[in-house]
Amino acid sequence: xxxxxxxxxxxxxxxxxxxxxxxEYFINKLRLYMEEYKATKGRSLxxxxxxxxxxxxxxxxxxxxxxxxxxxxxxxxxxxxxxIIFNTCxxxxxxxxxxxxxxxxxxxxxxxxxxxxxxICGCMMQEKDVIENIRNKYKYVDLVFGTxxxxxxxxxxxxxxxxxxxxxxxxxxxxxxxxALPTERKYSFKSGLNIMYGCxxxxxxxxxxxxxxxxxxxTPEDILEEARRLSKDGVKEIMLLGQNVNSYGVNFIADSAIxxxxxxxxxxxxxxxxCRIDGIERVRFMTSHPKDLSDKLIKVIAxxxxxxxxxxxxxxxxxxxxxxxxxxxYTREQYISLLKKIKNEIPDVSVTTDIIVGFPGETxxxxxxxxxxxxxxxxxxxxxxxxxxxxxTPAASYPDQISDDVIKERFDRLLKVVNETTKERVGxxxxxxxxxxxxxxxxxxxxxxxxxxxxxxxxHFKGDKDMIGEIVPVIMKEHKGFYYMGEAVRG
Length: 491
Ligand code: SAH
Ligand code: SF4
Ligand code: F3S
Description:
By secondary structure, the chain is α/β, with parallel strands linked by helices. 35% of the residues lie in helices and 22% in strands. The chain is built from 13 helices and 21 strands. The protein has helices spanning 19-41, 55-71, 93-112, 128-137, 153-163, 208-212, 220-232, 267-275, 295-303, 320-325, 332-345, 364-377, 404-426; strands spanning 46-51, 74-75, 83-88, 117-122, 143-145, 167-169, 190-194, 196-197, 216-218, 237-241, 251-254, 257-260, 282-286, 310-312, 350-357, 381-386, 433-441, 448-453, 458-462, 471-479, 483-488. The strands form five sheets. The chain has a six-stranded parallel beta sheet, with helices on both faces. A five-stranded mixed barrel has the order 17-18-19-21-20. α12 packs parallel to α13 (404-426). The longest helix has 23 residues, at 19-41. It is globular. S-adenosyl-L-homocysteine is lined by residues 91-92, 205-206, 208, 243-244, 287, 289, 314, 316, 354, 356, 385, 387-388, 390.
């Protein structure tokens, strides 16, 4: 963006020192800039946000979009947008490589379009060697920021325009938390809600604690206030987000400081309080770490009709020996008995999981233990990943790395068992009538809509777009493996 009229309409006061006020100040400055741009060029600038990674990143992107829309940017496809932001993930190396591919594709257009800006943010930017690489080889990238300061997007865009050069601002750890900026939700009727940030678990394969910082929970007041606001705004389903929601409340963020916890108030209490909010009809959460999923939590889930009976409980491996090397802090037996308890206490509960194949030192016997665990646990879904070496994590320097062809062979065998067992498990709903939250028009069949049961099962059925955002009873007519074809029950 080489437009240079900014000084003529600067806000006259100095920028507030920090927090929400400071960001609102920069949003306002850029609004004026945008108005001027529009008057001169006859159109607004456009944006596109491309997101990789987990639900948290997708939720962060909704917040980035909220800021951009407040400035006056209009949404456009990546191919034509003036401002393109990549919100990156670095949990596995292939997520990482994708970014460089995208940047390469955009280079030509960027160099010939003076109004164009490229921004990159998210987890990958918290790695030192990535920043060095971008500084040296991707000079045409305008904005680089990380996971701890993405709320400063407006300030950074402003700075880029003022200084006319690449802006790289990465903070090493969490500083201020600014929550109340505008958010653009992808769906009007459902929303993510961060209840905590960071992770303290340091599983030996995982980079998340290094790029998202130490665990910190938002206060119940703050979370409940946001949930009430979402409900007033038409949200029916809330997904509570955290790397390990079961350890919610170990410490709290208050005015950018960390205060110690209330031992009486943890995740079960928070869940119960959220369910008391009128208008919120469904509550989901992710992710649960098996090491601290308490009996109290199981009871709250079982007793509360608003809490979806669906738990994501990553196991990672079926071998106790590998679980110890991964620093997961549970054994195979403890995991299986926890899962059995959950299934006993919560009828029909859907359990999903994550599994890593080829962790260093994984023998054929270890792998077979994973296969047998998958058979025993009867998951509704299992996300399978090939182990990816992440620089800086302990497992990256373990000497006994597994060869690619052994991993590939195991991965295919695991996928087969996962497909067979999940298909069978998902089949338990055949012929039953279940409430379905309609999410969108069907992409392939006209006159059809697609929605989800509380168990997370996808159902396609005849309906029109007026149903989107409604919860309707649907008969699960045909079991198609991972999803159902259904029929709405007319009341
Ligand atoms: N906090 C969540 C997981 C976050 S990362 C939990 O504890 O379960 C999501 C998933 O990515 C993990 O469950 C794990 O299965 C996978 N993953 C993380 N690091 C990985 C790595 N280095 N290689 C392959 N998969 C990995
Ligand atoms: Fe990574 Fe483990 Fe933390 Fe999950 S709990 S984010 S896998 S370190
Ligand atoms: Fe990826 Fe960051 Fe999520 S590394 S999985 S986007 S927390």
